[in-house]
Specification:
Radius of gyration: 18 Å
Helix content: 25-40%
CATH architecture of one domain: 3-Layer(aba) Sandwich
Largest sheet: 6 strands, parallel
Length: 242
């Protein structure tokens, strides 16, 4: 985000009381700058049981293999993906504000709430965080890459992590929003590649970072590129599943 945008937001905080992004009620303290404790409670969290591969939540009790049918079909290149929230209601609304309404700072509040989940903290601990890249034209239009901002926010909060933007999106793609599972896979096929300067270390554990995991096609494509580059330990994480 441009430096002057951060300055303007700070001045606005001085003259106008902040409202919680979820409850729309005035707040002084909270989980984040724009997320009150009441607002954080309304974020729909994912709890076990969930798919051991993509983190998709199962309804009710389940015994035996905790792999969802979609992962049997996809065979993801990542070992395990973890998402703290379901992409419903307030979570989806906040992510839409980040991506489409020029409010990237709300990622910091979602990260603060997400990292209350100790499982997510353990999943990220000691990892090299690899943000999913945007195509340069899309990033120029938006002004930032929300996945890169998310990776940096996680890095600041989780010890022994580092951010490594190793990937580039060399081919533009249409939005995944209205595409089905198979169309999503075709859409991102060969869209990503390693940056020419990227160096992969086989002993490092890489976690591909994105805002939302829907079918896993994007995270799978990015993980596949890392594995082709020599990575042997590749996981994934996103703020929300759905």
């Amino acid at each position: 985000m441009p430096f002057w945008t951060e300055i303007d937001r700070g001045l606005q905080d001085c003259f106008y009381p902040r409202d919680c992004v979820v409850t729309q009620e005035p707040m002084e303290v909270g989980v984040g700058r724009y997320l009150s404790p009441n607002g954080a409670e309304r974020l729909e969290r994912i709890h076990d049981p969930r798919c051991d591969t993509c983190g998709h939540p199962f309804l009710g009790l389940i015994e035996g293999d905790l792999t969802c049918p979609h992962c049997f079909e996809l065979h993801p290149a990542f070992h395990r993906a973890l998402c703290p929230f379901q992409a419903h209601g307030a979570v989806r609304a906040i992510i839409h504000q980040v991506k489409y309404y020029q409010k990237p700072w709300l990622i910091d509040d979602l990260v603060a709430a997400a990292l209350q989940d100790p499982l997510l903290r353990r999943h990220l601990l000691g990892a090299t965080l690899v943000p999913v890249p945007l195509h340069p034209s899309r990033e120029l239009d938006r002004g930032y890459n929300q996945a890169l901002r998310l990776a940096h926010a996680l890095h600041r909060a989780v010890p022994a992590t580092e951010v490594a933007p190793l990937l580039q999106k060399s081919q533009p793609t249409v939005s995944q929003t209205r595409l089905g599972r198979q169309a999503r896979r075709r859409n991102v096929l060969k869209a990503f590649s390693l940056k020419p300067t990227a160096q992969i270390h086989p002993t490092k554990r890489y976690v591909v970072i994105d805002d939302v995991l829907t079918t896993g096609a994007t995270l799978h494509a990015c993980a596949q590129v890392l594995r082709q580059g020599g990575a042997t330990l590749v996981d994934a994480a996103a703020l929300a599943h759905g």
